[in-house]
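[job 4417] fold queue: 2 targets
>>> target A
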Amino acid sequence: MEVIATINRAKYDAFKWRYELSIPRKLILALGMAGLTGLLAQVRFYLPWSPVPITGQTFAVFLAGVLLGRWWGGISMAIYAGLGAAGVPWFAALNSGTGYLAGPTGGYIIGFIFAALFLGYLTDRYIRSRSFFSMLGLMLFANFVLIYIPGLLQLGLWLNLVKGEPATFNTLLRMGAIPFIAGDITKAVVAAAITRGIIPKRAYNGEVDKDKWAKWRLRY
């Protein structure tokens, strides 16, 4: 029991420390998470029928939202998109520039910002969101709604304007969604398991449900 109490105390101290950091130090953490996203972007597989590669980026997005919290997870992804557009070669296949961001995968990268903001806000504000199944559900929503929708919209626009090809709904699903579903679910499960073990199950920044969390089952 003492070991468990020590671990829980360490998790609480770490997240409270993260919440109370100065802005320059939070920026350093955000830059580090942006760097991890760029690193996982190099873990890529291209499909013959799609300009969108399979990468490990969404795993970093999930972690950024939960570990950096409200605003800063999204800021880390904005740093990733902004510095990549400015010339830092950390998009997939070491690409960079505004041309890449305006290409077939740019919408997904913009979606990373929305997804990390969403996850950071909810997990920072609600203790109940920190169970495994709650986080898994939030991550799947962030992935399949907040990342896929802008990704598919820009992919369709790119196909129409650049390739001159009709972007039917079935075509978009075949190129930009269906091949990635199994991998994204797997990444969400792993990320939810990791963050469930790391994030404390007690209030560290005035969570709105801090007086109710003990009534809920948070073990899973």
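>>> target B
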Amino acid sequence: MLSRTASNLYWMGRYLERADFTARLIEATQRLAALPSSYGGAGNAWESALSATWMTRRYAERGLPLDEAAVCEFLTLDPANPSSIRSCLDTARANARTVRTALTEEGWEAINTAWLEVSRYGAHLEGREAVGPLLEIVKHAISAFEGAAQRTMLRGDAFWFVNLGSAIERADNSARLLDVKYHLLLPRGESVGGSLDYFQWTTILRTVSAMTAYRWVYRDSVKPWLVADLLILNRQIPRSLASCYEEILRHLDLLASHTGKRGTAHRLAAAGHARLSQNNIDGIFTSGLHEFLTRFITENNKLGEAIAEQYLF
């Protein structure tokens, strides 16, 4: 496969995953902001949404108000925001169109339909009631694409590059979401394990659709260390860091078997997988959750760069 084709498939996977994450993040932030003031209320919920998408500085430069309407529009339809849902779908569709023959008809239709439906909204939201239907369109479309890919794509390099991009992006999103909660969302003076803390960790679980999974695995009330354990080390949950790295390593191994080449990307993925396998949540909290997540995000970015150098240039 040409490196240009591989790059389009890889980044298509990443941008689709980013659009899905942003949609889920907005939904969860709306729930959090709707809580009574005694449970945190709007507070810094929308600031946390910007931080989780790494858009705080860009948003501040625009001089926009830090409220639900402005942040929602910025994260959903703003063409000047490269990580808005609209921008992600624009880029994903452009990449998919370039490699149309590498996708099945069902996969292309899922992406193209999402792009068409979101494009009808233009660049502005017409009130709060427009947000919910837009987010449902995005979530449904991404699920439709993933289903189409699993059911209709050949298990070859095209399939592996799409899933590799998705897994890298998913790991990054989960790590940033956890880090934002731990360092930004809980105001100073609030107790860890208190009522506000409980609602915020519950919001994180709902963001990654893991509330039911948490109850099945732990059969306990929502506790910060158990949520962190689920989303970092538990391989049963698809959005956990450990599960993402298991998937990354598997697809890199398949690519290596196909091409007969291994490189820096394989070494970094194997090292990341080993670190997650050897860690436990007590050790992570003892050494510092923020430090662990910051290091993970840095290493994950290095892995993304190594994949690009090894396959995409």
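[job 4417] complete. Note on B: The longest helix spans residues 3-33.
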